[in-house]
TrEMBL record:
It catalyses: a purine 2'-deoxy-D-ribonucleoside + phosphate = a purine nucleobase + 2-deoxy-alpha-D-ribose 1-phosphate; a purine D-ribonucleoside + phosphate = a purine nucleobase + alpha-D-ribose 1-phosphate; uridine + phosphate = alpha-D-ribose 1-phosphate + uracil. The gene is deoD. Homohexamer; trimer of homodimers. The keyword Signal does not apply. This is Purine nucleoside phosphorylase DeoD-type. Catalyzes the reversible phosphorolytic breakdown of the N-glycosidic bond in the beta-(deoxy)ribonucleoside molecules, with the formation of the corresponding free purine bases and pentose-1-phosphate. The lineage of its organism: Bacteria, Bacillati, Bacillota, Bacilli, Lactobacillales. It holds the Pfam family PNP_UDP_1. GO terms for biological process: purine nucleoside catabolic process.
Length: 234
C-alpha cells in the first residue's frame, strides 16, 4: 500500500491504463476486462486489475491536472513497479478539423505548467515526449482496428478555464488538442525510465464549441479504449 493507492504488493499489473476520470476506469474494467479485482478506492480514485485477452492489465484513475496525475504515476512506478502507463483521456480539439470523437495520439506535450521549469532550472525548456515504441504500437494497432488517428503535440494546460493563453498561436505551431496531464506524465516517464503515452478522444472543440455530454465522456469513447487495451497487451 502506498500513500494514495490501497493495493497490496503484486496487485497492480506492469501496464496501466490511466484515465483522468475514475468512473472511466470503472467503465473500462467492467466492460473490457475479465477476472477484475478492484484494488483501490482511496479518495474514490478507483483502480482495477484484470485480464484482457488473457494478459494482465490495470486501470487506474489519475484525477485532473498534472499535480494529481503526478501523485498516482509516481506511486504506481516507485511503489508498485509499473513499467508502462497509457493515459486514456479526453481533450479539446484546437483546430476546427479536429472533431468530437476523433482519436489523438500524443507524440509530445507542450505545457504552461511549471513542472518542466522546476525540474531543470532557468533557461531549460524541456520537451516532454511519449515513448516511441508505445506510440508506434498504438498507431499500427489503430490502423489494424480501422480507427483513424491523428498524431501530434498536446497542449497540457494548468487551467481548464483559461483565456490567458494564445491557443490560436499554439494551434498554428502544431498543437492538435488540449488537456491537462500529458506533459506531466511524459516527464515522469522520462525521470523513471518508464514508457508513457497519451491516447485521447476529442470531447469538445474549442474553435467550433461542439461538445460531448458527461456520460459520453465517461463511456462512449470505446475506440480509444480498444486501441489502448490492444497497445497495452502487445
Ligand atoms: O477526461 P480526462 O482524462 O480527465 O482529461 C481531461 O478532462 C479533464 C477536464 O475536464 C482534465 O483532466 C483533462 O485533461
Ligand atoms: O482539458 C480539457 C479537456 C477537454 N477539453 C478541453 O478543452 N480541455
Amino acid at each position: 500500500m502506498s500513500t494514495h493507492i490501497g493495493a497490496k504488493a503484486g496487485q497492480i499489473a506492469e501496464t496501466v491504463l490511466f484515465p483522468g476520470d475514475p468512473l472511466r476506469a470503472k467503465f473500462i474494467a467492467e466492460t473490457f476486462l475479465d477476472d477484475v479485482v478492484q484494488y483501490n478506492s482511496v479518495r474514490n480514485m478507483f483502480g482495477y486489475t484484470g485480464t484482457y485477452k488473457g494478459k494482465p492489465i490495470s486501470v487506474q484513475g489519475s484525477g485532473m491536472g498534472i499535480p494529481s496525475l503526478s501523485i498516482y504515476a509516481t506511486e504506481l512506478i516507485k511503489d508498485f513497479g509499473v513499467k508502462s502507463i497509457i493515459r486514456v483521456g479526453t481533450c479539446g480539439g484546437m483546430r476546427a478539423d479536429v472533431k468530437v470523437g476523433d482519436v489523438i495520439l500524443g507524440q509530445g506535450s507542450t505545457t504552461d505548467s511549471n513542472v518542466t521549469a522546476t525540474t531543470f532550472g532557468t533557461g531549460i525548456y524541456y520537451a516532454p515526449i511519449s515513448d516511441f515504441e508505445l506510440l508506434d504500437r498504438a498507431y499500427h494497432t489503430a490502423q489494424d482496428l480501422n480507427v483513424p488517428v491523428q498524431v501530434g503535440n498536446i497542449f497540457a494546460a494548468d487551467r481548464f478555464y483559461n483565456d490567458e493563453i494564445d491557443m490560436e498561436k499554439l494551434a498554428d505551431y502544431g498543437c492538435v488538442a488540449t488537456e491537462m496531464e500529458s506533459a506531466g506524465l511524459f516527464l515522469i516517464g522520462a525521470k523513471y525510465h518508464v514508457k508513457t503515452l497519451s491516447i485521447l478522444t476529442v470531447s469538445d472543440n474549442i474553435v467550433t464549441g461542439a461538445s460531448a455530454s458527461a456520460k459520453e465522456r465517461e463511456q462512449s469513447f470505446t475506440d480509444m479504449m480498444k486501441v489502448s487495451l490492444e497497445t497495452g497487451i502487445k
